[in-house]
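Q: Structure tokens for this one, please.
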Amino acid sequence: MNELKCKKIIDSVYSKIKAHYGISKYQKEFPTIELHYNIYARVTGFPEAEGDCDPDAEYDRHENNIVIYYPKAENKQWILQTLIHEYTHYLQDGEEMQRMYDDEGYEYDTHPFELEAIAAEKDWKLFLK
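A: Here is the predicted structure, written as tokens:
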């Protein structure tokens, strides 16, 4: 999906997602959303940058923004699920999440915060209207 189409879908649903889930008790503001080609282009500032790590999206707690790598977007459902997933991370306690990775040995596939974000994705149909 191209960047413009992805942005139009996000613009049509993001206010509904914010209204539905509310503001995080760990942040003072709602997160912003950024669209990038890939993580390397975002981090380096070089649009053609490539590498081995290839996430679909991420929530940057320090910048309080949701980053979506728009070439990964398959359709509107994917965008909605991804927004909900990353928004769920915005709502979560980032320090606790990191502690559970560092001290309790959780990995992405078993981490309770990731499982919560994955489960929240089922709400995507709430934002179709």
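A few notes: DSSP finds five helices and three strands in the chain. The two ends are 21 Å apart (CA to CA).
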